[in-house]
Amino acid sequence: MFFGYPIAAVAENWLHECLVGMVTAVHARLDAGQPPAAWPTNIPTAHRARLRLKHGLCDRLNAYAAAAEGLAPAQRAQVLICLNQQNAIAGLVSCVSNCACLTDLPAPIREPATDLFVFAFKLLTDLDVRDAHYAIIYNTLGSKVCPFCALEYFDAPGAPREDLDHYLAVSRYPFAAVNLRNLTPMGMKCNERHKRDGDILRDAAGNRRLSFDPYADREIHVSLLNSIPFPQADGHPQWRIEFVPDSPECITWNSVFDIRTRITRDVLNPSFGDWLGSFARWFVTYKGSGDVSNDRIISSLGDYCIVLLDMRLTARDALRLPVFQMIERRCSNGDNRLLALMRDLVTRSVPQRPAVARNM
């Protein structure tokens, strides 16, 4: 992630806490040889008024209780441990802790558990928790873009809702389905085309891997300083996209969301020529066309980078700054081929005066 979401957005995590409390109470009564409490007395008092008419939740909690009753005490203990482990999000993404997956649980409890927690997830919309959660995030963002790619803009609250991704996939970790700590607004392309139901905690071989905590503070930038601007065999520059600061979490992030490929294919390759032309026109407009020496080009590239920085560009346009930082660095280091290209671009951008017809 290029940046993290504010932890304040998960403060109203009451539905998750309520559901965990109800499931824990079911286990406690069954282990004590007692039947589960009846609806709605099994709802914590503080939230009873908001949930007592949610009969779909009641039905699914009863189905879960019936399945749990059929398990041996040791199996119920295993399920309860899994419930708590799957919600230790910070420990899981940092590989400090581990958790079982759905398929590790006794078969009779898998479907009722998933059904209960997925149904409760849908209630987040009815109970206005989802919209309040998104509003806090949106209003806090400096750049209203998806932090997983920084390419897709987020719409303001009140527009059709952005995707709300289960960072730990609900197909594997259903006990975290309602936990706001595990729920991340995400651009449609990131969610539906790239991440989908992929496992953020494990690679394709099943090995544990480090992942970013979506609610931890961070700021990651793209550097292109080691790129080679001249066309390669495919007709495009050789882009070397580096993340600053780099870390093992970046490996997972790039693998899941295909960040380098998307930046190269969808932004840098199609935009590079246009961005060079924009610089040339800016040079002619603000620096004039009388002096196109190497020193003048290099100093102007530095000025242009300051202009781009001051513009606080977002989404795809934000990549213009690292592109021209790379060009400025290479020109300052004496890349004569690139300097010749920049001089030629500026020269060709000088407006041509129309020819004056002579009287015969």
Question: Could you name the key traits of this structure?
Answer:
360 residues; two-stranded antiparallel sheet; two-stranded antiparallel ribbon; 13 helices; 4 strands; elongated
Architecture blueprint of SSEs:
Blueprint: H1 14-31, H2 48-51, H3 55-69, H4 73-86, H5 89-93, H6 107-126, H7 129-140, E1 163-166, E2 183-186, H8 188-195, E3 221-223, E4 242-244, H9 248-257, H10 259-287, H11 294-311, H12 320-332, H13 336-349
Antiparallel strand pairs: 1-2, 3-4
* Number of H- or I-type helical stretches: 13
Widest sheet, order of strands? 1-2
Return residue spans where pLDDT drops below 50 for at least 5 consecutive residues: none
Please trace the helix and strand order, writing H or E for each element: HHHHHHHEEHEEHHHHH
The largest sheet, given as strand count, sense and whether it forms a barrel, is: 2 strands, antiparallel
Distance between the termini: 70 Å
Structural class: mainly alpha
Shape: elongated
Alpha carbon gyration radius: 28 Å
Strand share of the residues? under 5%
Quaternary arrangement of the chains shown? single chain
Whole-number count of domains: 2
Give a structural overview.
The chain is mainly alpha-helical and 360 residues long. The chain has helices spanning 14-31, 48-51, 55-69, 73-86, 89-93, 107-126, 129-140, 188-195, 248-257, 259-287, 294-311, 320-332, 336-349; strands at residues 163-166, 183-186, 221-223, 242-244. It has two domains: 7-195, no CATH class; 242-349, no CATH class. The protein contains 13 helices and four strands. The strands form two sheets. It has a two-stranded antiparallel ribbon. It has a two-stranded antiparallel ribbon with strand order 3-4. The protein is elongated, with a radius of gyration of 28 Å. It starts with 13 loop residues before the first helix and ends in an 11-residue tail after the last helix. The mean pLDDT is 95.
